[in-house]
Fold this protein.
Amino acid sequence: MIPELGHFALWLAAAAALLQAVGVTIGLWRNDEGLMRLAVPSALVQALMTVAAFGALTWAFVVSDFSVKLVATNSHSMKPDMYLWTGVWANHEGSLLLWVLVMALSGAMVALAPATLGPRFRDRVLSVQAMVALGFFAFLLIASNPFERLVPAPTEGQGLNPLLQDPGLAFHPPLLYIGYVGLSVAFAFAVAGMLEDKVGPAWAKATRPWVAGAWAFLTMGIALGSFWAYYELGWGGWWFWDPVENAALMPWLAGTALLHSIAVVMKRDALRAWTLLLAVAAFSLSMMGTFIVRSGLLTSVHAFAVDPTRGLFLMGLMALYIGGALTIYALAAGRVAEGRQFALVSRESALVANNLFMSAMLGVVLVGTLYPMALEASGGAQISVGPPYFNRTVLPMLLVAAILMAVAPFLGWRKSATGHLASRLLPAGIAAAAVVVIAVWPLGVREIGSLLGFGAAAWLGVASLSILVKRGLTLNAAGMALAHFGVAVSILGATASGALQREALVTMRVGEAIEMGPWRAELMDVRPVAGSNWTAIEATLDVRRNGAPVAVLKPQSRVFVAPPQETTEAGRAGWRTGELYSVIGKPDGTGRWQVHFWVKPLVRLIWIGGLLMALGGVLALGGKVRAGARRRSAVAEGALPLPQAA
Amino acid sequence: MSWTTRALWLLPLLLFTGLVVLMAQNLGKPQQAVVRSHMVGKPAPAMALEGVAGVPGLATADLKAGTPVLVNLFASWCLPCAVEAPQLKALQARGVTLYGIAVRDQPADVEGFLAKHGNPFGRIGLDPGGRMMIGFGASGVPETYVIDGRGVVRYQHLGEIRAEHVPMLLAELEKAK
């Protein structure tokens, strides 16, 4: 009964979205107040009904109702309780339901937030958002019904992919989806801005909190995903340039560029057309990324469903939305293009430089991700593009961007003096030089790329901290400084974990030890252990540094019962901000075991940096919301008086 | 506004249209999970690898001796490599010349592996850096290559050799003559 109610609620939500999309658009077109007024209530109904549908599906998973096909194919009664909950979105249909849930909730937030650009603009935004949501409702109801029943109902489910039975799963997809879908609000604002001719500083001010919020969630989602891959997949790495990682990285790069260019529109009313394009691109890339990995166009661990019909449906939706938005852009960009001029050395041009770097990285990642597909389509050979390509192209750009990033916040708007830069950046320069010297000696790093990484991290980190000294602690400045500082922390972590890492791969008997510099890891024991739905071989490694015990690692090689599958659980332990990491492999049959042992100093800084970035975004968001509440007093930030909207 | 500016606004739409066409063409094509080597039909990579476990090493000249040979990329740490050992023995019994390349391995480990599973190889090249994996375009171990008598790669077998693959490999060797 409850699944049917959920199914019904989903239809009602779709009906509300239809009303909100079509009714409100007609109202806007004919200037019919009555129809326009439908926007807010229908957005609220849509959100309420979607919550009900999601609740119904969750209920089916939690009570293990195997008469629901989705539960039967993706769940198992032996699964630990937590994964009964998270299993809801660990499959194609459920994750789409989560997608529309987040979309409907953000629609409700737009409906309830103060309409700073007037009710007509808000209704326009809601109608655009409903059009996007409508497509996904249609996709769910027509091609991927999560509430489909199985007759007769099986007594047991087929289980959840063991890789997905992890606490990381509880947060990684929802965070990413909030990020992706948050960008849909920016998309709706951009389309509405073009249709209503409202693009200007006031528009930017209204849009920016959505961008900042979505960006913060996306950052957290990516950081968590990277952490999850690091400890779950057991490959000893934290970023693999897998298509699905690129799919999340591309909207993030576009979102980062958007976050910076929208500041230029807000403060200086320049770069309007470009900002619109970025807003359209950010959400388009979110949709495309999801589509590419889900449709099976590219091979990935995240491809839930390889079903050409579904792929075609999703592609149709995508073509409609992105194509539609870009058509509006082609028609409207000419009207909004004119902006103000600025000098070469100014905050604006620094932000343009940011945009150039972000866009260039975006282009590089896009080409790397799609090139194998394009080559194959044109009758060429099958290739795969791997880390060497991405590392050689993206890392140098990232390095230069990091160096510029330290300077940009010290520049003034419109036209900047440069005399103060030397004294402001002196501490950063000293820190960079000192860190490079420390890296060369005593740490013995010789590789030029790593040294540049260390230098850039110190330079950016110290410069970001000194921003606070210069500008005082407004929430905005603190948010920006914190986000930039987070980038520096991540660069430091990434550089150090590569340059200072030690590893050993040996086959050893119980009682033997790996010696690696000051480190010694002794294999104490190998024995079978069992969990609620798996059995495993577990090794016990006693790790000592200069003779003092540091940690006991327990890597496992797990075999899951349902579905039958082997996974590697790395044995990890923190050591300062670094990690000790070990993986147990196969026995060689003569009593020896294959053990891979890593010491990765500072590696946790990568994810800590990501969280700092996200926190910076949230702080800046708080600044925006508070500034909005204090009406237009944001001028007090030291910028020029805000020009009126065009 | 000039037409070039107008064309510029259209550019994103045009690029996106191209992308959609591209994706539409690829949609529904079966996934190819294996990556085939591009070295098939080309000369095997140049090598001069040291021997191991008392077996002589492997060099490019050994692949140009006039008769087709099998080159097997294996490693002591690789479980499927142990699984295919009986099939390699069977091939050897049928008079096939087998050369091995021990990828990312230590001499002591290779010795132990051969002691346990037997040695079907006439020559074994030790490749501690795994360079030959790139040289042959291998996507993993084990992989087995048919090299004709002139040093040219003729056939690539991905993964372990199972009993049913033995006649196939014999036929490929015959073809390469």
Observations:
- The radius of gyration of chain A is 26 Å.
